[in-house]
Design brief:
The chain has helices spanning 11-17, 70-82, 206-223, 237-248, 254-262, 279-284, and strands at residues 27-36, 42-48, 57-58, 61-63, 89-94, 106-114, 128-146, 152-164, 170-182, 185-195, 267-270, 273-276. With 286 residues, it is an alpha+beta fold. It folds into 2 domains: 21-222, Nucleoside Triphosphate Pyrophosphohydrolase, CATH 3.90.79.10; 224-284, no CATH class. The strands form 2 sheets. Strands 1, 2, 3, 4, 5, 6, 7, 8, 9 and 10 form a 10-stranded mixed beta sheet that branches. A two-stranded antiparallel ribbon has the order 11-12. Strand 2 and strand 3 form a beta hairpin. The model has no long low-confidence stretch (mean pLDDT 93).
Length: 286
């Protein structure tokens, strides 16, 4: 029996009569957040060639074509703007602010990866006027207060300084994050990015996207052997410690770090240092 809707239409009739313009639509972009974390954490940025945010620094990315998938779209944009290829992972969709892009109601699906910058050659192309690796420096101020409603407010101010490795460009901004909690339930979240006057700046909400990507990796690196993907085996515990300290923005003693990592179960001792223990996959990826 053919199913019909309240107007008596079959699926074929409904699709034939359907007017896609009857409903407002959001445009979709994809952005790539690429880090090199072997020494000082670094990020790959491009300089925008066109409006809006012309001349500002941004993540490689752009609008999704109608006939392509999300992953295909982010890979295409990354190659078009930087000539870099990477194995990317989707980590978040940004679109809470309807005015995050002056052109339209735009949602962006963000992807991220760790890569080794000495294994790729960047070349600005397409919508990118320039492309550079930037060193990331950051410090944090964190405060917890009770507001007049008895709710907990968590305030984090992260002071960011991005300096290109050729030292020709610096981007300085503060990211203000406020979370309002009722016990463990999050009631609201506010984010504001304030760039230093007279300095270069990031386009759109890309400061928020980068901050979110760093927070994502800070959590994930605790649970998975994420950092091992960019180290050649055998590697030293010292090399691994530099990666963890850079991503987590903290210092460890050698003894503390060695105990911490060996306790995770994904390392094995080999001649010349350490390597990934493949048995971890069998135990943790069932």
């Amino acid at each position: 029996m053919t199913k019909v809707n309240e107007r008596g239409e079959s699926l074929e009739e409904f699709l034939r009569n359907y007017n896609a313009n009857s409903y407002p639509k959001a445009a979709i972009t994809t952005d790539a957040v690429l880090f090199d974390v072997e020494e000082q954490p670094q990020i790959l940025l491009i300089k925008r060639k066109n409006h809006p945010c012309i001349g500002q620094w941004a993540l490689p990315g752009g609008f999704l074509d109608v006939e392509e998938g999300l992953y295909q779209g982010v890979q295409r944009e990354l190659v078009e703007e930087t000539h870099v290829r990477a194995q990317l992972e989707q980590f978040y969709t940004f679109g809470d602010d309807p005015k995050r892009d002056k052109r339209d109601r735009v949602l962006t699906v963000a992807y991220t990866a760790f890569i080794k910058k000495d294994k790729v050659q960047i070349k600005a192309d397409d919508d990118a006027l320039d492309a550079k690796w930037f060193n990331i420096f950051r410090t944090e101020d964190i405060e917890t207060i009770k507001n007049s409603y008895g709710q907990t407010e968590l305030h984090r101010v992260t002071h960011y300084s991005f300096v290109s490795i050729d030292r020709s460009v610096s981007i300085i901004f503060d990211l203000h994050l406020t979370l309002v909690l009722d016990k463990i339930i999050q009631l609201s979240k506010r984010i504001e990015v304030i760039h230093k006057a007279g300095q270069e700046s990031l386009a759109f909400d890309h400061g928020e996207i980068i901050d979110n990507a760093l927070s994502y990796h800070m959590k994930k690196i605790e649970a998975e052997p994420l950092a091992l993907s960019i180290l050649d085996e055998p590697f030293s515990m010292c090399a691994l410690q530099k990666i963890y300290e850079g991503i987590q923005n903290k210092d460890y003693s050698k003894a503390e770090f060695c105990s911490k990592l060996l306790g995770k179960g994904f390392l094995k001792k080999v001649d010349g240092g350490y390597a990934f223990d493949e048995s971890w996959n069998l135990l943790n990826r069932r």
